[in-house]
């Protein structure tokens, strides 16, 4: 029998599966586990959005939508971004609808990078960006910038150092704010300083702003405000309206850039389900403040979990957005985060995500998702306290 695996795409077998999902599946087999693993709002999608999806189905909106997305959705998304953040994009030519931000990331990476190009990634960060680049070409070089010594924020000096070293090979800068896994976000002044480093250089900035509506202590800031022509902006409805299963994301960029990315989208997805686009249109158009109730609850959960973890000896940067806390394993424990999470779930039935899932800069950390009920947070902290007391060196 021919071993066909070795004839598949070169390097594909070297790319690990999603370790976050792998561990979450393992933890789910423990009956009474308290899970702080998956980043998915535990709220219901607002009723008016569900009714819009139902109406679309009843009215037979069941045929192909335009490849770039329905014009109604693009207009609603454009109006939302303009009203909320002052981000101005032409719905006709500068907004593209995708299968969640997951597809948006892949489309952007494949459209902007050639073999030999460099993608710069501040880490720790959600691993999807780097996995996508590796799948596209082993000749794409990924340069990670460890931000752990700078409160998990990229600094202009470290970004400039990479440009000084690699010059014109740098093609794509990844920016995710508020950040997964740290919950850290940037002020407008900080983003402006980073924008100045790459301004007028042949560098795209992929700005993943999917958590834009979940900023707790400041208004959402965006690199787009000062680097519009180089920014490829990603957003969507998954986190702000608890619509992860609807799979609607958007790419926004100058029309000449969107036109090229749209070619990738056409061949990967053609278009997205029409009823789901109608639901997303309703979210952007008539749910402009829907996220406020979720945000208030997430902020309460953040404070309870943050205070509880710090009392137990974890060092954490207090999250400014999203719904994650990135905690340093206490010094009284072995710092192997992968061993730690399996020992914790086996002994205490508390599931968290290993920091090294988010690149080497996350080693020795664990991520808590507080997109869970307050009761689960309280129970999880009780179990964690017992585990710490019984297992520390």
Helix content: 40-55%
Q: Structural class given helices, strands, pairing?
A: alpha/beta
Q: Give the strand line-up of the largest sheet.
A: 2-8-7-6-5-3-4
CATH superfamily of the largest domain: Type I PLP-dependent aspartate aminotransferase-like (Major domain)
What does the main sheet amount to? 7 strands, mixed
CATH topology of the largest domain: Aspartate Aminotransferase, domain 2
Mean pLDDT: 96
Poorly predicted parts = none
**Count of the domains:** 2
What is the first-to-last residue Cα distance? Answer: 52 Å
CATH architecture of the largest domain: 3-Layer(aba) Sandwich
Rounded to the nearest angstrom, the radius of gyration is: 21 Å
Tally of helical runs:
12
What is the string of helix and strand elements? HEHHEHEHEHEHEEEHHHEEHEEEH
CATH class of the largest domain: Alpha Beta
Report the principal-axis shape. globular
> How many beta-strand runs?
13
| Percentage beta strand | 5-15%
Can you describe this structure?
The protein is α/β, with parallel strands linked by helices and 393 residues long. It has two domains: 4-44 and 291-391, Aspartate Aminotransferase, domain 1 (Alpha-Beta Complex); 47-286, 3-Layer(aba) Sandwich (Aspartate Aminotransferase, domain 2). 40% of the residues lie in helices and 15% in strands. It contains twelve helices and 13 strands. It has helices at 19-28, 47-58, 71-85, 100-112, 128-136, 156-166, 188-198, 255-268, 274-286, 291-311, 337-348, 374-391; strands spanning 34-35, 95-99, 118-123, 141-146, 170-176, 204-208, 231-236, 248-252, 315-316, 324-328, 350-351, 353-354, 365-369. The strands form three sheets. A seven-stranded mixed sheet has the order 2-8-7-6-5-3-4, sandwiched between helices. Helix 7 (188-198) links the parallel strand 5 and strand 6 (204-208). It starts with 18 loop residues before the first helix and ends with a helix. The mean pLDDT is 96.
